[in-house]
Fold each of these.
Amino acid sequence: MKYKKIDAKSYAKANFTGIWAANLTPFDEALRFDEQAFRDNLRHWIVDLKLGGVFIAGKQAEFFSMSIAERKRMMALAVEVASDCGPRPQSAPAAIVTSCSDTNLDVVLDLAKYSQDIGADYVIVHSPVLHFGADTHETIFEYYRYLSEQLDIGIAMWNHPDCGYVMSPELCARIAELPNIVAIKYSTDKEKYTQLTQLAGEKIQISNPDEDEWLNNMQELGWKLYLCSTPPFLLQSKVDQRVNEYTTLALKGQFKEARAVNDSLNSVRDAFKKSKPKGKPQAHAKYWQELLGQHGGSVRRPLLQLTAEEKVMIKKAFESSGLRV
């Protein structure tokens, strides 16, 4: 590890910053994990798109359809590629946060301890999926308290309504007091994440994955971390990096200039959102990747593949988006 447990919060405040993207997993025609395609995509995101870090093996990556061995292999490759890319002229080396989320706590701990051992920078753990009314504050607090006790690596919370509940700002702030809780990906409404920023913004990095609000959150809430999903590598290309551009301007306090660049992306955002078939987010994003020249590939069951008609519609939207490739 690059820091001691006692220094996790201060290290993350200084280094868990910038634009982070969540990977999609390229599977080949036989639905095997395509390691070379994964390496190629990572190098593009780190070297060409200059992302601050990458969120590995999360829901976008279809971790729910992968074996534990596959998830570990993906994590190890990510750390290896980030290291091989080395320090970049404009910033520190790209960092890696591994998603250790699972319904089985033993699996969570196994993946998190593995992440510590291979040199990942942080881990992120989704709030537990609970049943029969067990989603009490004390249950969820104890879940993260136990993880904090067992691990040395910095831990990011992750809460999304698809786990069955939304954690309150007060609960998140209580968990933020734990020694190596360093961040949260808080997929909730602005009222809640604004309140959490007021309660715990000095202790942990707070982020919301909505790219539409990233500029506003930098300006209004002073955020320094965009812990996102796929927009950083789907709304940009090697020759068209407007997400990076408006972020850099905003972090310098040049909000008027940042707003102009941000607004110029509206046609790209609209094309991407309107071309997404219902219930097929990963399949849609992977095909958009391919149109950008990245490796996409198929999705694994239970997810559904795109139809030929859907691909025609997506390609038409992509070509009219104004995104330069």
Note: Residues 5-237 form a domain with the TIM Barrel fold (CATH 3.20.20.70).
Amino acid sequence: MAPLMVKETTSQLHELETHAHGLASRMPSLLVAARRVSHTVAHGIHGRHRRGPGETFWQFRHFEDSDAAETIDWRRSASSDHLYVREREWEAAHTAWIWVDLSLSMAFRSHLSETSKFDRAIVLALSIGELLVQGGERIGIMGGPARTGRTAVTKLALSIARRANDPALGSSSLPPAAALGAFSECLMFSDFLEPIEELAPRLERLAVQGVRGHLIQVLDPAEETLPYAGRTEFTAVESGEKMTAGRAEALRERYQQRMGEHRQQLLDLLRRLEWSLLVHHTDHPPEEALLALHGRLAGLEHNYRYRPPAERTRTHTPGSASSGPESSGQTS
């Protein structure tokens, strides 16, 4: 039994090494793609704005029961049937910590998509990093230093590549138990298909530090729909376990039910932590997810001019990365 275990461990290490070398060779093109995506989304927006202490006016928002009466802007409220509060813009640099799942399961790509989950997660992580740096924010890989300036995104890409070459860091499907500063934010890119009982302790350790978290669940469309039929062999990428189904289509309904239950458990966990979830499928443009994520970081859900896409239209395409609760799982 021991020789078999050694053989399996050697095989997994070889796969990790191949995966890491593949990432190293693709990273320059992924960085170029990320900058292209960020420039597309940046057109028409002006960095990242959020409410907080400062002298510059940011926005009006609807008065809430928790607001003090003296915060009401009576001049703005007089021209409407609603009460509005004047908010100022946060003028201190903020830190956003980024984690990308580097495990082998992220390399999956079906015939329904032109890109793997891993490549899409990298492009999204580097793209949001580019937008944050343009807005004057600091970014860093979870467990590493935070940086700002023109080279921050390049150094973030190098940090991701180095971690992919480290089996101890690159093989885990769970975010690290890193010490992050209070009032910072963490952006995590993964398929988040690990059991909730394994994921919850990691997220809770981060939440108790006063960190605001955003999970970006990157999935291949086949992982939602199970579009296979006939005799099909399924192989677990990380464990190597195999299962053969005589009629794969007979599993579809139960499989989709299990996926729905898992996502609901994840949403329940994030609602308790007051974190958010954004679901993105790799057959959709990365700009959709990036725009929705940027809007969430900017606090647009509190802007009186902003209405989520779910409120602007009654149509919904399954798998879209909009800010509506059906697709993104808004929890805050």
Note: The mean pLDDT is 77.
Amino acid sequence: MTRKLTRHSLRNSREDLAATTRTPETPQTEAPAYRLAYTDPDFMVREELRPVRLQLELLKPEMILNERGIRSTIVLFGGARILAPEHAGQARSEGLKSLSHYYEEARRFAFLMTEHNLKSYGRENVIVTGGGPGVMEAGSRGAAEAGGQSIGLNIVLPHEQAPNPYVTPELCFNFHYFAIRKMHFLMRAKAICVFPGGFGTLDELFESLTLIQTGRMEPIPVLLFGRTFWDEIVDWKKLVHYGTISAADLDLFQFVETAEEAIAIIEKAQGPNGDLADAGV
């Protein structure tokens, strides 16, 4: 998409950026101090520029998503280590191998949701994942197979990681700050689907529930795929027993087993125009 530039009487930053490529090479022009501030990578990564970097990471994806007309998203969280069934034999453990069917369920969910999304010309209920492997890949893959787009919110990690090949390239973002990345997951979210995963998945799940519980975020469907897995790793009733959460907090999420179950709940929660219904959510 070509962005229309706003014209005004002052010379714009693009023109000055182009002009710097024609500057004569002298000791003065080659010195770091002479670089335009917004083109100077050494300056941009200084400690004092953290507030600016935070703002830029918030603005860049937001502006691009607005330009693409994307109004709402369906979030998929889940483990990066969960392999597709055809590759389950390469799993690190028998436990991971037993979870491979969730890859296929995430893929099918994203496919069916994207088919629904295409009725709104790709503007509503767009699949968004962390952009990496495992369940994230399954979500992006299902959306691509349905002929739609998906958003990938990658983050720079100490070990090498590349976006999965199914994310829509124009909607594939990279982050330095986890906090800003989390904001982008939830800013347009109309539902959150959580598949089995590790620390990252648990972090994303419990932060989302905390925001809803404390009224910092409007209630939306939070759907946990695979009750057996979740009940084994979290003793929900013990949290109520000890009083650290209330019994009503258990209503903030629902368990589902299949893509069809999840889509039925999401569709029931949304009005005819894709808005959350007033009742029940």
Note: The beta strands are 73-77, 126-129, 150-155, 172-175, 189-194, 222-225, 254-256.
